[in-house]
Amino acid sequence: MKIVKEKMGPESPPLQKKISFLEKTLTKKAAMRGKDFEKHKSRSLRLSVFVALFVWLFVGVLIKNLVLSAAISLATMAIIFVILVQIPASKRRAYSKKVEADLPVFLMKLSTEMKTGKSLARALGDAAKEDGFAAKEFARVSLDMNKGATLNDALAAMNERLLSMNIRRANSNLASIYSHGTKNVTGLKRLAQELLLKQRIESKEFSGKMVVYALVFIAISAIVPAMFMSFVLIGSYFMKLSFTAPQIFMISVGLFPILDGAVLMMINSKTPLFLKQ
After folding, report:
1. Distance of CA 21 to CAs 137, 150, 171, 211, Å?
2. From CA 173, how far away is CA 159, in angstroms rounded?
3. What is the pLDDT of residue 8?
4. Would you state the pLDDT for residue 140?
5. Burial of 84 (0-12, 13-18, 19+ CB in 10 A)
6. In angstroms, rounded to a whole number, what is the distance separating the alpha carbons of residues 199 and 208?
């Protein structure tokens, strides 16, 4: 009696957990960001050391005190290194604020698109065709979805790129709509109205402060130079003040314009981003 041995095929490999396209991309980008940050820190350290050596030599020759000049150069190196390292994070925060400033208008546009009966993915792609920083970011979300990523993964990548709680709230709302398959955009519209109300409040507050800023600018650009010239003319007769012609010229065409520029820069920094766009 022959025993027939059944040939067993090779054991099937264990099922591997499927990893989405965007999960792989996020992992690669996270590793690249880590490497880029290390390179950036290395370059920043080299540049700060170079500047510190130059400061040490220059200050040492100027004050002829090596210990004090070394202390000044070390402080300079630390300050420059911290500033250079913080520059990428500062740019990221500034860009996130620009996207957040455009977010209410984009959400209103998206809710309008969805009310016409379009799916969330299609409405998102059509709304992202508009101009603006928010539309640009959601266009990247739509592009990731076209490459095979889910909406949740694409929104997670957007949250990774930006630093804004309001953007995370909007993306969470969109993910909820997508997960439940509903076209109820009441929450999305309510969030957009809330952000618009916040912008109106900020606009009114800035309008009140702008009166003070305008008075300061007028005083520095017109009143202070006039008072300075009067003080020079009267003081030369009664107080025996001595200002040479080059000194008066440098103060008039150098110092006062610098002060005016500083006030304008301060006003620009206090202006909300949505009023600049």
Report:
1. 18, 9, 19, 53
2. 13
3. 40
4. 92
5. middle
6. 14
